[in-house]
Amino acid sequence: MTRKFIYSMAISAVLATGALVGPASAHHSVSAQFDYDKPFDFKSATLTKIEWINPHSYLFFVVPDETGKPVNWSIESHGVASLRENGLTRDTLKVGSTYQIKGFRARDGAANGFLQQIVTPEGKVFRMASSDSGK
User: Structural domain boundaries of the chain?
Assistant: First the structure.
C-alpha cells in the first residue's frame, strides 16, 4: 500500500466518524451559573410557559417584585426524564396557575434561577434537590 492510500483512508475514517457523531449540545454545571448562597422563595409565581427539553427544561413565571411590579423569570430545571422521576409531567403543571417556587438565583443577578422545589395550588410538593443546599 502506498502512503497516499493510507493517508486518504485515515482522513476518510476521521470524516466518517465526525459525521456519525454529529453536533453535541453544550451542557453546563448548575453551580457555574447559579449561586447556592442566593436562594429565592416566591410564594406567588404564575406559570406562563414550559419548555420540556433536554438536558434542562425551562419554566417561565411572572413573579411580583417587592413593589408588586410583575417580573418575568426564567427558571431552569432538570431534563424531562428527571422531572418525570420526580413526579412532574406535562399534565402536572398548568400554564396560568400560580405556584410557590424555591431555588437559586443566577450568579449574574438576572431574573432567572434553578428550580429546587415547586408547590402546586393544592399543596403538592415536588422537590428537585436532595437537600436544602441544592446539592
Answer: 34-127
